[in-house]
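My main concern about presentation is that the manuscript never shows what a single data entry looks like. Each protein is reduced to its one-letter sequence and a matching series of backbone shape codes. For the editor and my fellow referees, an illustration may be useful. For illustration, here is how one protein appears when written out as sequence plus structure tokens:
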Amino acid sequence: MKTEKLGTFELETWAPDELALARDARRVVVIDVRSAAEYAIERLGGSLLMPMAEFDAAALPDQEVKKIVLICANGLRSARVARGLISSGLQRIGHLDGGIAGWKAAGLPWRGLDPETGSMAWQEQSLRPQPARGLRW
């Protein structure tokens, strides 16, 4: 993770793989700052929703046990909210580099609408090059 010092405060920028490990170990609370409509379509498993438009810093959980990492679609909104929280006095906050797009590009699973059933299901999409497969005749 990259850490940017802003005076005595810290803005952490998490890589998708780092966040996946920390989330799976239950060392972080992941908060999605996108709209409810975006969250309904796709989200990271276990993430909480607190839309940027309605963000309430007073409602954030204490970070003594678990760090808070903000996420959005591409990392721009989460970085903006994180910087706002730091400017209002929060000592440390993190955000996901590249947002959910970066998460998906890393080939990590997420929860999304199943196009066949319309219900939420685990999805995987790897944008990494796949090994060539031979044709079977």
